[in-house]
């Protein structure tokens, strides 16, 4: 039995090297290449383990043929959770071929877990949260995917000012902040023909708080995927700083 285990480990190492070498040579988009490589490695791992089990069980005196013949296929599938496994595999294949997420993408799954995709396997998808926590999510449990790595994102910052503040003064201040942030963080914004696709700008009054707090102004900008939160933080901090310097109140 020890010889079988050693042979499986050697075979796994060789197959993994072949898969990695194949994808290193393949002309595929880098992110898609990593995702497919992860999926193939997972499939090879499960296949080898299944084959090893079929070889080892007879050595241990277990009659595999009798088990298969004596138990109905439906009962065997239910007993070993094969139905759930099949759902995980099918969902995983759809996730990959529909390009819902890739290794390296920053995603939010089921409106609950947000992190970077580390592996897309046959049965599970692995996410690493910002805090460092690692999540293993069964593919069949993935219902919604919010992907933050798809070409462009729009930063949006809402600021509420009291009703008695001068709206022209507020707009002038916000426009100055937008120009400063655009100049200082130019490379974080989404490029477009002849400049930026959508530079930081005052979108306008987006709400009038009925509770009496004040008027809401919104500032927006199109950013590169990895920069959206950075730009939102910078805009909030800069607006707060300038308001404090000029005596403009924020609710």
Describe this structure in words.
- By secondary structure, the protein is of the alpha+beta class.
- 48% of the residues lie in helices and 22% in strands.
- It contains seven helices and ten strands.
- It folds into two domains: 2-147, Helix Hairpins; 153-246, Alpha-Beta Plaits.
- It has helices spanning 2-25, 30-59, 64-70, 73-79, 82-97, 167-184, 228-246, and strands at 106-109, 113-120, 124-129, 134-138, 145-147, 153-161, 191-192, 195-196, 201-208, 215-223.
- Summing up helix and strand content along with how strands pair, one would put the structural category as alpha+beta
Largest sheet properties: 5 strands, antiparallel
Looking at the chains present, what oligomeric state does this protein adopt? single chain
The CATH class of the largest domain is identified as Mainly Alpha
Q: Tell me the number of strands.
A: 10
Radius of gyration: 27 Å
CATH topology of the largest domain: Helix Hairpins
Percent helix range: 40-55%
Alpha plus pi helix count: 7
Name the strands of the widest sheet in spatial order. Answer: 4-3-2-1-5
Shape: elongated
- Residue runs with pLDDT of under 50 for 5 or more positions: none
The average pLDDT value, as a whole number, equals 83
Order of helices and strands: HHHHHEEEEEEHEEEEH
Instruction: Tell me which CATH architecture of the largest domain applies here.
Output: Orthogonal Bundle
Bin the strand percentage: 15-25%
Q: What distance lies between the first and last C-alpha atoms, to the nearest angstrom?
A: 72 Å
Count of structural domains: 2
């Amino acid at each position: 039995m020890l010889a079988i285990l050693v042979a499986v480990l050697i075979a796994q190492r060789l197959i993994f090297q072949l898969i990695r070498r194949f994808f290193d040579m393949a002309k595929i988009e880098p992110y898609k290449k990593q995702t497919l490589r992860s999926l193939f490695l997972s499939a090879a791992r499960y296949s080898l383990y299944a084959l090893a089990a079929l070889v080892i069980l007879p050595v241990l005196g277990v009659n595999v043929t009798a088990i298969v013949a004596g138990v109905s296929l439906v009962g065997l599938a239910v007993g070993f959770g094969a139905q759930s496994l099949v759902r995980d595999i099918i969902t995983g294949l759809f996730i990959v071929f529909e390009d819902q997420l890739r290794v390296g993408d920053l995603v939010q799954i089921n409106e609950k877990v947000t992190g970077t995709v580390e592996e897309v396997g046959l049965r599970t998808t692995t996410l690493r949260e910002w805090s460092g926590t690692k999540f293993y999510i069964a593919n069949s449990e993935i219902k919604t995917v919010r992907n933050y790595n798809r070409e462009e994102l729009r930063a949006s910052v809402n600021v509420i000012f009291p009703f008695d503040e001068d709206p022209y003064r507020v707009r002038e201040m916000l426009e100055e902040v937008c120009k400063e942030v655009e100049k200082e963080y130019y490379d974080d914004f989404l490029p477009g023909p002849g400049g930026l696709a959508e530079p930081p700008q005052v979108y306008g009054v987006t709400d009038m708080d009925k509770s009496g707090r004040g008027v809401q102004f919104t500032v927006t900008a199109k950013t590169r995927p990895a920069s959206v939160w950075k730009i939102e933080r910078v805009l909030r901090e800069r607006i707060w700083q300038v308001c404090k310097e000029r005596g403009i109140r924020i609710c």
